[in-house]
Amino acid sequence: MTKRNQAVGGYGERCAVRHLIEAGLRPVARNWRCPSGEIDIIAWDGPVLAFCEVKTRRSAKFGTPAEAVVPRKARRLRGLAAAWLAATGTTADEVRFDVISVLLPGTGRARVEHLTWCSSARPCPPCRRRSTRPSCSTAPTGSPPC
After folding, report:
1. Which of 56, 100, 124, 138 is the most buried if burial means most Cβ atoms within 10 Å?
2. Would you write out the chain's pLDDT as a tens digit for each of its 146 residues?
3. CA 116 to CA 98: how far, in whole Å?
4. Three-state SS string across 28-40, please?
5. Can you tell me the distance from the alpha carbon of 58 to that of 141, in angstroms, rounded to the nearest whole number?
């Protein structure tokens, strides 16, 4: 991964955390890693523990950021969530898997879409969308967090 892609991804994750906080969620971990992979954001939404995958793109030319979360990635996220719960000893009555899609247009504000998913890591019928409003402004690499 290039430094530019890392910067774009990092900026998208900062936008996602800000969006979650504004939506009333309480982040408890970011970029948790184990040998099987990484969880971008883990946050409490009241009594529900949300494991969030953040996908950031500079354009929708090759599809929306959320479309990059394929079934294989969703299955891996479930395994990572189980590993995090075991490693931390955390218990939750309900666990869910969310995708936070961050689209960075050439100018203007980032577009953040928070898709709330079921514990099966499949879209809830109907898919519950939290918000599609702009969340934070885009900025070039090296700018302060949003």
Report:
1. 100
2. 688 888 888 998 999 999 999 999 999 999 999 999 999 999 999 999 999 999 988 877 777 778 878 788 888 999 999 999 999 999 998 999 999 999 987 777 889 999 887 554 444 433 444 443 333 333 333 333 33
3. 5
4. EEEEEEECCEEEE
5. 13
Enter the tokens of residue 10.
Answer: 């990092």
Placement of tokens 């019928």 in the chain: 125
As a whole number of angstroms, the distance between CA 96 and CA 117 comes to 6
Residue that is written with structure tokens 């500079």 in the block: 58
Name residue, tokens 């954001």: 41
Token pair 């599809």 is found at: 63
Question: Would you say how long the chain is, in residues?
Answer: 146
